């Protein structure tokens, strides 16, 4: 669905397509990125892990089965499967699994895990062994202060595994994913413009409402009508929240947050699960990513204080992101699963997207909703790493939120007044989140450069996927968009490490394509109307991003699952079905967001790619999904 050039872009992501006994073109090569240094052949005896994704047997039937489990008219209704049942129905058979395992072992590789879904196999071997099996020497590279390893050339799946193995993940160890957390700008603006230190520390019995930028989960519950569930005794007890993340953290921060708010939580409610050895050393406690993990746990666990929490921690390299989801789903312990990390959809190779999608459909078959942040660069997700004006803007979406089996969490701005040095800015009604409302003020008093450096592109992610077709739940829905025309990406030659002052063309995206629209629903994400975080033993204010919305929705759906005493399964048919029933009427679970844009798409009194179906009335949503209140 997209046309790609085989030249480098500034982040230099190498996602080599793997074919059965043949080579295909690569996307976003490393070789012309001036910031990447080839350090030569990697240590031959070093042991690395890979994951092989296998062909799904009857993918269309697997998708239909997932939808039927949440269809009250289906005999499959609420008959959730186990991982072994998924493997029996849709994974490879025992003979094919044995063929792959025997081949890997014959090449000297050690098979470390055959997932119960019979769709993934993990193995490890030395760089020398991996190079011999998959056809390319492994080199070491260094960029942006990090060293990683990747094939120096094009790799192939051995021909004798044709028809069974679709792709190999993890040969390229380059970190790809980033967290979706945003803070009020603290640089490029005069003192007093942004307030990152809270005016007061929250207490369990605070009588006054919190100020914008200092909201807690208690404020969230009041603003989106969660409190009637608590009054009915629904706290998430008996359910387990799943958090997928790529950075370490301190459990004490999460407990400190909940205890300060007076939330009744079990003292041992958190369980950490290290996947592929856990986060990289640079992503340990105290790192930027640690703030992401901390807020994910604080928010989800604060919304559903009675639930247990299981945190899956993986390295941001190689096959870590895939293995993280696969492990959570294979364990089948969590009842919900959310992630606030992602990358522009077009940075992912098609075979990687397919492997993730199979895991997400498996989760749906087991009853586990997967929720992901939609990104924080508005409609221009790729420009979070290829910034304007060094590169042109490009309408793009974030993955995994763009997957049709993942609930995409979008962002809004709540009504409030911002007190700035040169005058106040008032947001009168909840609107789509984007900092275009600050453009005139910032450019007038601080200049256009400051605006583009600190305030653009910032907003709730949303748009039209170019890799996932329009799903049935969005068919015939007013406001659903197709891809726009004239979407080409150019970057300055100097940014790409080339001589000259002009721009170089990198990619075209197809127009008029009926792709999956996102987000699905939205909640407050603007740091100016945002939240407190308790991190490293200190309170900080002015945080936001769809990073908050994903775990908040995780907590909300955990409450609903507890209230219904059942897992929820695939959320999209249920939410879009409820919208077709209730619209924005008195008992609707949805609140129309009719103001603002996400820098391109307008929020309207219909579904739209800025805020999706709108924000939520959680109590009405719970009733619509079968909770008796």
TrEMBL record:
The active site is at residues 292, 296, 547. Residues 220-628 form the Peptidase S53 domain. Residues 1-21 form the signal peptide. InterPro entries: Peptidase_S8/S53_dom_sf, S53_propep, Sedolisin_dom, Tripeptidyl-peptidase_I. Its cofactor is Ca(2+). It holds the Pfam family Pro-kuma_activ. SUPFAM superfamilies: Protease propeptides/inhibitors, Subtilisin-like. Transmembrane segments: none annotated. Keywords: Calcium, Hydrolase, Metal-binding, Protease, Serine protease, Signal, Zymogen. This is S53 family peptidase.
């Amino acid at each position: 669905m997209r046309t790609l050039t085989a030249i480098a872009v500034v982040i230099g992501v190498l996602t080599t397509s793997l074919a059965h006994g043949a080579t295909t073109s690569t996307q976003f090569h490393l070789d012309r990125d001036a910031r990447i240094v080839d350090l030569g052949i990697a240590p031959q005896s070093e042991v690395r892990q890979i994951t092989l994704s296998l062909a799904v047997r009857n993918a269309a039937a697997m998708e239909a089965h997932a939808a039927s489990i949440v269809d009250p008219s289906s005999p499959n209704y609420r008959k959730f499967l186990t991982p072994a049942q998924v493997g029996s129905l849709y994974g490879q058979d025992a003979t094919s699994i044995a063929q792959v395992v025997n081949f890997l072992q014959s090449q000297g590789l050690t098979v470390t895990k055959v997932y119960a879904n019979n769709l993934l196999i993990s193995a490890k071997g030395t760089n020398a062994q991996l190079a011999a099996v998959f056809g390319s020497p492994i080199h070491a590279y260094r960029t942006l202060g990090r060293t990683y390893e990747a094939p120096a050339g094009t790799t192939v799946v051995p021909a004798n595994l044709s028809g069974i193995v679709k792709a190999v993940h993890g040969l390229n160890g380059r970190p790809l994913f980033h967290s979706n957390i945003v803070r009020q700008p603290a640089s490029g603006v005069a003192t007093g413009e942004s307030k990152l230190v809270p005016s007061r520390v929250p207490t369990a019995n605070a009588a006054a409402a919190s100020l914008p930028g200092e909201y807690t989960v208690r404020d969230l519950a009041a603003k989106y009508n969660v409190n009637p569930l608590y009054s009915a005794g629904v706290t998430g007890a008996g359910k387990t929240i799943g958090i997928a993340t790529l950075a370490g953290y301190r459990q004490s921060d999460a407990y400190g947050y909940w205890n300060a708010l007076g939330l009744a939580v079990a003292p041992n409610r958190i369980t950490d699960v290290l996947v592929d050895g856990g986060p990289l050393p640079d992503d340990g406690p105290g790192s930027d990513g640690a703030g992401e993990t901390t807020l994910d746990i604080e928010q989800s666990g604060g919304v559903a204080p009675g639930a247990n929490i299981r945190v899956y921690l993986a390295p941001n390299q190689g096959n870590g992101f895939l293995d993280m989801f696969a492990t959570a789903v294979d364990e089948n312990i969590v009842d919900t699963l959310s992630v606030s990390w992602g990358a522009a959809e077009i940075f992912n190779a098609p075979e990687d997207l397919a492997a993730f999608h199979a895991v997400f459909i498996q989760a749906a078959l087991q009853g586990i909703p997967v929720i992901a942040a939609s990104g924080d660069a508005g409609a221009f997700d790729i420009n979070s790493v290829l910034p304007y004006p060094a590169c042109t803007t490009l309408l793009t979406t974030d993955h995994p939120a763009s997957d049709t089996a993942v609930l995409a969490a979008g962002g809004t701005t709540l009504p409030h007044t911002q007190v700035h040095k040169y005058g106040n800015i008032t947001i009168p009604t909840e609107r789509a989140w984007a900092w275009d409302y600050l453009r005139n003020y910032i450019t007038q008093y601080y200049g256009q450069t400051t605006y583009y450096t600190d305030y653009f592109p910032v907003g709730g992610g949303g748009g039209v996927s170019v890799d996932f077709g329009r799903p049935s739940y969005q068919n015939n829905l007013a406001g659903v968009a197709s891809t726009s025309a004239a979407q080409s990406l150019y970057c300055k030659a100097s940014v790409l490490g080339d001589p000259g002052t002009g721009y170089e063309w990198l990619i075209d995206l197809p127009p008029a394509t009926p792709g999956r629209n996102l987000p699905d629903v939205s909640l407050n994400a603007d740091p100016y109307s945002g939240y407190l975080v308790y991190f490293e033993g200190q309170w900080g204010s002015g945080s936001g991003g769809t990073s908050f919305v994903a775990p908040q929705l995780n907590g909300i759906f955990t409450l609903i699952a507890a209230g219904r005493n059942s897992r929820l399964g695939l959320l999209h048919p249920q939410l879009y079905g409820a919208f077709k029933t209730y619209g924005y009427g008195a008992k609707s679970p949805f609140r129309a967001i009719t103001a603002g844009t996400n820098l391109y798409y307008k929020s309207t009194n219909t579904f739209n790619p800025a805020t999706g179906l709108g924000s939520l009335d959680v109590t009405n949503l719970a009733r619509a999904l079968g909770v008796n209140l």
